[in-house]
Predict the structure of Cytochrome c family protein.
Amino acid sequence: MDDRFNTMAGWVLAAGIVALGGSIVAGEVFHSERPEKMGYPIEGVVEEGEGGGEAEKPIAFYLASADAAQGEQVFKKCAACHNADNGGANALGPNLWGVLGEPVGKGKGFAFSEALASKGGTWNWDNMSAWLKSPKSFAPGTKMTFAGLSKPEDRAAILLYLNQQSSSPQPVPAAPAEAAAPAEGEAAAAENAAEATSNGAQKAEDEPVLNNPAADPKGNGEAAPQD
Ligand code: HEC
Protein backbone atom coordinates (compact mmCIF):
# COMPACT_ATOMS: atom_id res chain seq x y z
CA MET A 1 0.00 0.00 0.00
CA ASP A 2 2.82 2.37 0.91
CA ASP A 3 4.61 1.57 -2.33
CA ARG A 4 1.56 2.33 -4.41
CA PHE A 5 1.07 5.60 -2.57
CA ASN A 6 4.66 6.54 -3.29
CA THR A 7 4.28 5.65 -6.96
CA MET A 8 1.14 7.76 -7.26
CA ALA A 9 2.74 10.64 -5.43
CA GLY A 10 5.68 10.33 -7.74
CA TRP A 11 3.49 10.59 -10.81
CA VAL A 12 1.61 13.53 -9.40
CA LEU A 13 4.89 15.27 -8.67
CA ALA A 14 6.24 14.44 -12.10
CA ALA A 15 3.06 15.74 -13.73
CA GLY A 16 3.38 18.92 -11.71
CA ILE A 17 6.95 19.41 -12.82
CA VAL A 18 6.04 18.80 -16.43
CA ALA A 19 3.13 21.24 -16.16
CA LEU A 20 5.31 23.88 -14.54
CA GLY A 21 8.08 23.41 -17.09
CA GLY A 22 5.52 23.55 -19.85
CA SER A 23 4.02 26.77 -18.61
CA ILE A 24 7.45 28.37 -18.29
CA VAL A 25 8.31 27.35 -21.83
CA ALA A 26 4.92 28.49 -23.08
CA GLY A 27 5.42 31.75 -21.25
CA GLU A 28 8.73 32.26 -22.96
CA VAL A 29 7.31 31.42 -26.32
CA PHE A 30 3.93 33.06 -26.22
CA HIS A 31 4.34 35.81 -23.69
CA SER A 32 6.85 37.69 -25.76
CA GLU A 33 6.54 41.40 -26.38
CA ARG A 34 3.41 42.71 -27.96
CA PRO A 35 4.16 43.07 -31.63
CA GLU A 36 4.46 46.61 -32.89
CA LYS A 37 1.83 45.95 -35.49
CA MET A 38 -1.17 43.91 -34.44
CA GLY A 39 -2.98 41.57 -36.76
CA TYR A 40 -1.89 39.20 -39.45
CA PRO A 41 -0.69 40.12 -42.88
CA ILE A 42 -3.19 38.90 -45.44
CA GLU A 43 -1.87 37.77 -48.77
CA GLY A 44 -2.81 39.99 -51.63
CA VAL A 45 -3.58 42.91 -49.35
CA VAL A 46 -1.02 45.69 -49.53
CA GLU A 47 -0.35 47.38 -46.23
CA GLU A 48 -1.15 51.03 -45.83
CA GLY A 49 1.73 53.48 -45.49
CA GLU A 50 5.51 52.98 -45.64
CA GLY A 51 5.77 53.19 -49.37
CA GLY A 52 2.95 50.68 -49.72
CA GLY A 53 -0.50 52.18 -49.80
CA GLU A 54 -3.36 50.77 -51.75
CA ALA A 55 -3.08 50.25 -55.45
CA GLU A 56 -2.55 53.69 -56.85
CA LYS A 57 -3.73 55.10 -60.12
CA PRO A 58 -1.24 56.83 -62.43
CA ILE A 59 -0.34 60.34 -61.27
CA ALA A 60 -2.14 61.83 -64.29
CA PHE A 61 -5.38 60.70 -62.69
CA TYR A 62 -4.71 62.76 -59.54
CA LEU A 63 -3.34 65.71 -61.50
CA ALA A 64 -6.73 66.14 -63.11
CA SER A 65 -8.28 67.21 -59.82
CA ALA A 66 -5.19 68.67 -58.12
CA ASP A 67 -4.73 72.28 -57.13
CA ALA A 68 -1.43 74.16 -57.36
CA ALA A 69 -2.43 76.45 -54.47
CA GLN A 70 -2.77 73.41 -52.26
CA GLY A 71 0.57 72.23 -53.58
CA GLU A 72 2.13 75.45 -52.35
CA GLN A 73 0.89 74.54 -48.87
CA VAL A 74 2.32 71.03 -49.11
CA PHE A 75 5.62 72.54 -50.28
CA LYS A 76 6.09 73.89 -46.75
CA LYS A 77 7.25 70.37 -45.89
CA CYS A 78 10.10 70.84 -48.34
CA ALA A 79 10.95 74.43 -47.49
CA ALA A 80 13.43 73.47 -44.77
CA CYS A 81 15.73 72.29 -47.53
CA HIS A 82 14.42 73.74 -50.79
CA ASN A 83 13.09 76.85 -52.40
CA ALA A 84 11.54 76.99 -55.83
CA ASP A 85 12.23 80.66 -56.56
CA ASN A 86 13.60 81.87 -59.86
CA GLY A 87 17.33 82.18 -59.24
CA GLY A 88 16.91 80.99 -55.66
CA ALA A 89 19.95 79.67 -53.83
CA ASN A 90 20.69 76.05 -53.18
CA ALA A 91 20.29 75.15 -49.54
CA LEU A 92 20.37 71.73 -47.92
CA GLY A 93 18.67 70.65 -51.12
CA PRO A 94 18.94 72.17 -54.59
CA ASN A 95 16.87 75.10 -55.80
CA LEU A 96 13.83 73.68 -57.59
CA TRP A 97 12.96 76.40 -60.12
CA GLY A 98 11.97 74.69 -63.37
CA VAL A 99 12.96 71.26 -62.10
CA LEU A 100 10.32 69.42 -64.16
CA GLY A 101 11.97 68.71 -67.50
CA GLU A 102 15.50 69.07 -66.10
CA PRO A 103 17.96 66.16 -66.01
CA VAL A 104 17.62 64.10 -62.82
CA GLY A 105 20.21 64.96 -60.18
CA LYS A 106 22.25 67.33 -62.35
CA GLY A 107 20.86 70.84 -62.15
CA LYS A 108 21.76 74.08 -60.38
CA GLY A 109 25.38 73.17 -59.66
CA PHE A 110 24.28 71.25 -56.61
CA ALA A 111 26.50 68.51 -55.20
CA PHE A 112 24.12 65.62 -55.76
CA SER A 113 24.66 62.18 -54.37
CA GLU A 114 25.92 59.52 -56.73
CA ALA A 115 22.64 57.70 -56.11
CA LEU A 116 20.56 60.45 -57.71
CA ALA A 117 23.13 61.78 -60.16
CA SER A 118 23.55 58.34 -61.75
CA LYS A 119 19.80 57.86 -62.18
CA GLY A 120 19.67 59.28 -65.69
CA GLY A 121 16.70 60.70 -67.57
CA THR A 122 14.82 63.92 -67.01
CA TRP A 123 12.24 64.75 -64.40
CA ASN A 124 8.71 64.14 -65.58
CA TRP A 125 5.35 63.72 -63.86
CA ASP A 126 5.75 60.00 -63.28
CA ASN A 127 9.32 59.73 -62.03
CA MET A 128 8.94 62.87 -59.91
CA SER A 129 5.84 61.36 -58.32
CA ALA A 130 7.75 58.15 -57.60
CA TRP A 131 10.68 60.16 -56.17
CA LEU A 132 8.46 62.19 -53.87
CA LYS A 133 6.54 59.11 -52.77
CA SER A 134 9.71 57.55 -51.43
CA PRO A 135 13.06 59.19 -52.20
CA LYS A 136 15.01 56.30 -50.73
CA SER A 137 13.24 53.66 -52.82
CA PHE A 138 13.63 55.78 -55.95
CA ALA A 139 17.33 56.43 -55.40
CA PRO A 140 18.72 54.20 -52.62
CA GLY A 141 21.48 56.15 -50.92
CA THR A 142 20.07 59.59 -51.73
CA LYS A 143 20.99 62.58 -49.60
CA MET A 144 17.38 63.71 -49.47
CA THR A 145 16.43 62.54 -46.00
CA PHE A 146 12.74 63.01 -46.45
CA ALA A 147 10.33 60.13 -45.79
CA GLY A 148 8.11 60.94 -48.73
CA LEU A 149 4.58 62.01 -49.48
CA SER A 150 2.42 58.91 -49.29
CA LYS A 151 -0.77 60.59 -50.54
CA PRO A 152 -0.92 60.76 -54.33
CA GLU A 153 -3.17 63.82 -53.99
CA ASP A 154 -0.38 65.68 -52.17
CA ARG A 155 2.16 64.70 -54.78
CA ALA A 156 -0.12 65.77 -57.62
CA ALA A 157 -0.72 69.15 -55.97
CA ILE A 158 2.98 69.76 -55.33
CA LEU A 159 3.83 68.73 -58.89
CA LEU A 160 1.39 71.29 -60.26
CA TYR A 161 2.89 73.91 -57.97
CA LEU A 162 6.47 73.05 -58.96
CA ASN A 163 5.45 73.11 -62.62
CA GLN A 164 4.31 76.69 -62.18
CA GLN A 165 7.67 77.60 -60.65
CA SER A 166 9.26 77.49 -64.06
CA SER A 167 9.92 79.60 -67.10
CA SER A 168 8.87 76.68 -69.31
CA PRO A 169 6.09 74.72 -67.59
CA GLN A 170 5.47 71.23 -68.89
CA PRO A 171 2.12 70.29 -70.40
CA VAL A 172 -0.08 68.62 -67.77
CA PRO A 173 -0.99 65.12 -68.95
CA ALA A 174 -4.63 64.35 -69.58
CA ALA A 175 -6.37 62.05 -67.14
CA PRO A 176 -6.07 58.48 -68.40
CA ALA A 177 -9.22 57.02 -69.91
CA GLU A 178 -10.52 54.54 -67.36
CA ALA A 179 -12.61 52.60 -69.87
CA ALA A 180 -9.59 51.17 -71.71
CA ALA A 181 -10.15 47.62 -70.47
CA PRO A 182 -13.96 47.41 -70.48
CA ALA A 183 -14.05 48.55 -74.14
CA GLU A 184 -13.38 45.01 -75.29
CA GLY A 185 -16.09 43.65 -73.06
CA GLU A 186 -18.50 46.21 -74.39
CA ALA A 187 -17.74 45.21 -77.98
CA ALA A 188 -18.37 41.58 -77.11
CA ALA A 189 -21.62 42.48 -75.41
CA ALA A 190 -22.70 44.48 -78.44
CA GLU A 191 -21.93 41.51 -80.67
CA ASN A 192 -23.98 39.22 -78.48
CA ALA A 193 -26.81 41.70 -78.49
CA ALA A 194 -26.70 41.92 -82.30
CA GLU A 195 -26.83 38.15 -82.53
CA ALA A 196 -29.75 38.03 -80.16
CA THR A 197 -31.74 40.52 -82.24
CA SER A 198 -31.06 38.73 -85.49
CA ASN A 199 -32.19 35.47 -83.91
CA GLY A 200 -35.27 37.21 -82.66
CA ALA A 201 -35.98 38.60 -86.12
CA GLN A 202 -35.73 35.15 -87.60
CA LYS A 203 -38.09 33.76 -85.02
CA ALA A 204 -40.63 36.44 -85.82
CA GLU A 205 -40.48 35.54 -89.51
CA ASP A 206 -41.10 31.89 -88.80
CA GLU A 207 -44.17 32.62 -86.83
CA PRO A 208 -47.48 32.58 -88.76
CA VAL A 209 -49.09 35.92 -89.24
CA LEU A 210 -52.37 36.01 -87.43
CA ASN A 211 -55.19 37.54 -89.41
CA ASN A 212 -58.34 38.50 -87.77
CA PRO A 213 -61.05 36.62 -89.64
CA ALA A 214 -63.76 38.66 -87.98
CA ALA A 215 -62.51 41.81 -89.65
CA ASP A 216 -64.85 43.67 -91.92
CA PRO A 217 -64.19 42.13 -95.38
CA LYS A 218 -64.92 45.31 -97.31
CA GLY A 219 -63.20 47.53 -94.87
CA ASN A 220 -65.83 50.30 -95.22
CA GLY A 221 -67.59 49.46 -91.96
CA GLU A 222 -70.99 49.22 -93.75
CA ALA A 223 -73.33 46.24 -93.70
CA ALA A 224 -74.27 44.62 -96.99
CA PRO A 225 -77.10 46.55 -98.67
CA GLN A 226 -80.60 45.11 -98.32
CA ASP A 227 -83.59 45.34 -100.83
C1 HEC B 1 15.78 67.31 -45.27
C2 HEC B 1 15.97 68.11 -46.45
C3 HEC B 1 15.02 67.89 -47.60
C4 HEC B 1 13.65 67.91 -47.60
C5 HEC B 1 12.71 68.10 -46.42
C6 HEC B 1 13.25 67.72 -48.97
N1 HEC B 1 14.35 67.59 -49.77
FE1 HEC B 1 14.36 67.40 -51.79
N2 HEC B 1 16.35 67.17 -51.79
C7 HEC B 1 17.14 67.26 -50.67
C8 HEC B 1 18.50 66.89 -51.04
C9 HEC B 1 19.69 66.85 -50.09
C10 HEC B 1 18.47 66.59 -52.40
C11 HEC B 1 19.62 66.05 -53.24
C12 HEC B 1 19.46 64.54 -53.18
C13 HEC B 1 20.63 63.74 -53.67
O1 HEC B 1 21.58 64.32 -54.21
O2 HEC B 1 20.60 62.51 -53.46
C14 HEC B 1 17.09 66.79 -52.84
C15 HEC B 1 16.68 66.62 -54.15
C16 HEC B 1 15.42 66.93 -54.59
C17 HEC B 1 15.01 66.91 -55.98
C18 HEC B 1 15.87 66.58 -57.18
C19 HEC B 1 16.31 67.87 -57.82
C20 HEC B 1 17.10 67.67 -59.11
O3 HEC B 1 17.50 68.66 -59.67
O4 HEC B 1 17.31 66.52 -59.54
C21 HEC B 1 13.68 67.26 -55.99
C22 HEC B 1 12.80 67.38 -57.19
C23 HEC B 1 13.29 67.47 -54.63
N3 HEC B 1 14.36 67.25 -53.80
C24 HEC B 1 12.02 67.83 -54.24
C25 HEC B 1 11.61 67.88 -52.91
C26 HEC B 1 10.25 68.14 -52.53
C27 HEC B 1 9.11 68.44 -53.46
C28 HEC B 1 10.21 68.05 -51.17
C29 HEC B 1 9.01 68.18 -50.26
C30 HEC B 1 7.90 67.30 -50.50
C31 HEC B 1 11.56 67.80 -50.71
N4 HEC B 1 12.38 67.68 -51.80
C32 HEC B 1 11.93 67.70 -49.40
C33 HEC B 1 16.75 67.60 -49.41
C34 HEC B 1 15.44 67.68 -48.98
About this structure: Residues 59-164 form a domain with the Cytochrome Bc1 Complex; Chain D, domain 2 fold (CATH 1.10.760.10).
